[in-house]
Amino acid sequence: MADEAVAKAGLHFDELNKIRVLEPEIHQQTSELKEECKEFVDKIDGFQSIVGGLIEMVDSLAKEVEQEKMKAIGSRNLLKSISKQREAQQQQLQALIAEKKTQLERYRIQAAGLQKEEAEQNEFIEQFILQK
Fold first, then answer.
1. Which residues contact 20 (CB under 8 A, 6 or more apart)?
2. What is the pTM for the complete model shown?
3. Which residues pair with 19 in a beta bridge?
4. pLDDT tens-digit map of 93-111
5. H or E segment and range at residue 101
6. Any coiled-coil ranges, and where (predicted)?
7. CA angle at residue 126 from 122 to 129, to 5 degrees?
8. Residue ranges per domain, the chain?
């Protein structure tokens, strides 16, 4: 009867005969839930640390990829620059060849003119010598 009176007042005795406000079953379920929550929180913490490590690894990999991308872009630009330089150099050399060909033709014409003049002067000298 005393147990019923105490139970009506909302108080209960546990297995150690301590007075509790909750029923022993509810207290047991609450303790189990508390333990499960602690395990869940521990698992979540483990998951967060794994995800954090994964994020760091992906960030590191992204930085490396970005660096390699920049190197590739730099190499491509250098290659284009070298190609343009070669084209410009080739055009300069072709212009120099054209200039030298023009100069050669001028020298040929000048040489032909000088040979003609030399022949005329030799003929004049021979005629002058023959007249004397």
1. 11, 12, 13, 14, 27
2. 0.49
3. 13
4. 999 999 999 999 999 999 9
5. helix 24-131
6. 79-117
7. 135
8. 2-131
